[in-house]
Amino acid sequence: MSHHVDLSQLSKVYATPKGPAVIVKDFNLRIAKGEFVTLIGHSGCGKSTVLSMLAGLSDITEGVIVLAGKELVGAGPDRGVVFQSPSLLPWYTAFENVMLGVEQVFFTASAEERREIVEYYLTVVGLGESMHKRPAELSQGMRQRVGIARAFALKPKMLLLDEPFGMLDSLTRYELQGVLLKLWRENRITTLMVTHDVDEALYLSDRVVCMTDGPEAEVGDIIPVAFPRPRERQAVMDHPDYYPLRERLIEFLEIHAHKKKAAPSATPSAPAAPVAPLVEAAPAPAPRNDAMLVTA
Amino acid sequence: MKAFKFDWLILPLIGIAVVVLLWQISSKTWAKELPTPHKTWEASKEYVLKPFEKRGEMDQGILRFTWYSLILVAKGYAIALIVGTPIGFFLGLSKAFTKTFDPIIQVLRPVSPLAWLPLGLVLFLGAGKQASELGALFTIAICSMWPTVMNTAVGVRAVPQDYLNVAKVLKLSRWKTLTKVLIPATLPYMFTGFRLSLGIAWLVIVAAEMLTGRPGVGGFLWQEYNALLYEHIILCIITIGVVGFILDRLMSLVESRFKTA
């Protein structure tokens, strides 16, 4: 299998007055073409840092990122990014916001073709009626729909989603997950999403990459999610593997949460007691092609 | 509705009445040279009721004088914006530029128009008849541009990182980043600067006209002081204040248009 994206030995170090702070260390991940991978971990563990290095918004301290055979240098519209906040320019309408990117990528296309591209993606995300409204007139969920349309309209080699639904209420979040999944199915764009929502990760992705807590965050566990596609939320949740997988993810996150809390206390014996059994129960960094899911 | 009228009409009128009363009392008691409100009106009537009449170079209706002053201010203010806005952008965008020029700007900023004007006249000494106008323009421009410079710089620094990330991810050219992201995002700050600059430009005009003796509200004020016509000084002060107030209101209107953008 050819790897579409290859992150190898990726490290991020910030210089601080107290000396260098290592956020991410030796992060390795390969993503196949058309794969949907989710990065999960605690807030501040460095998962967004990895994503923003991929987006070219943050410098790579050490290591290499190769996308479609080429080493990445800087940002560019070959990667569609959906930010946590919709990041629309408030002085432009939804249409103009998407057009801004389309003009950059399809500069050889005619004005008519570009208009069609923008209208197509805005219609697909459900904004056919309100594409000429400004962000201030749109709800938070609608704004994020524009953000998704903007990313897909670039026809990028890769899609980067930074907790795209983190600021939405759960009903809107479900709707937008559906919109995202539909677009992804139609375009099969290789995707890396950052989230801390376990259910979201299981519903959307082919693999879930668990990151250990920073500093010096790295890949802790990679869990394949083999629910058949196309996926329906209810069918996924009814799948016999759903809860075991969910347990495994939550357990991973819990262990790392406890580790973090236990770390500052000088005497590990007392507070660590309830944590210890959990550590033992956790599956040690599992082999990548975990065969736990063959039931599908 | 009643409360509205009370707040916006009755109370301000009471305020004005109090000041006029103090003025009246002062002119009757400790400041005998100060003309009373009534005397001021009698002496100023001609200038106010025939505001556009021209009887001589330094004897014209008050609005005609105001008009001359406004034209001079408009020119100097335009120069201030044209020069000040780009400087503000450079300050906001480049740390090196800020480190290089911020100290000198901070030194020049508090210098009074009265100090700049002689220098302005010296600079344009070669211009002959034009020297006084150019000197005045120089003074207005250099005194009034600082709020524009500082506010633009603050605005550029305050552009949300989200917007800059969008520009980076879409790989917008420098020009497009400037026109489609930076300028629209900075506009509200710029207009605050423009409004403050206009206020200063109007302040400076009086000093500039006084020292150059150009026809205008300030020039008229100084001439009438020398002619011992103190009523007209008060007329000029009121005119300058009212015009400044109207200018500020107009700019606030424009400014609030860009606030929501």
Describe, in plain words, how this protein is organized in 3D.
The complex is a heterodimer of chains A (296) and B (261). Chain A has helices at 47-55, 94-105, 111-124, 140-153, 170-187, 198-204, 233-238, 242-262, 269-272, 276-281, and strands spanning 3-16, 19-32, 36-40, 62-67, 70-71, 79-82, 158-162, 190-195, 207-211, 219-224. Chain A is α/β, with parallel strands linked by helices and 296 residues long. Chain A has one domain: 3-Layer(aba) Sandwich (Rossmann fold), CATH 3.40.50. Chain A has a 6-stranded mixed beta sheet, with helices on both faces. Chain A has a 4-stranded antiparallel beta sheet with strand order 2-1-4-5, with helices on one face. In chain A, α2 (94-105) packs across α3. Chain A is globular and about 50 Å long. Chain A starts with a strand and ends in a 15-residue tail after the last helix. Chain B is built from 10 helices and 2 strands. In chain B, strands 1-2 form a two-stranded antiparallel ribbon. In chain B, α2 (37-49) crosses α10 (230-259). The relative contact order of chain B is 0.12. Chain B is an all-alpha fold. Chain B has one domain (60-259): MetI-like (MetI-like fold), CATH 1.10.3720. The two termini of chain B are 31 Å apart. Chain B has helices spanning 2-28, 37-49, 62-93, 95-108, 113-123, 131-157, 161-169, 174-212, 217-226, 230-259, and strands at residues 54-56, 59-60.
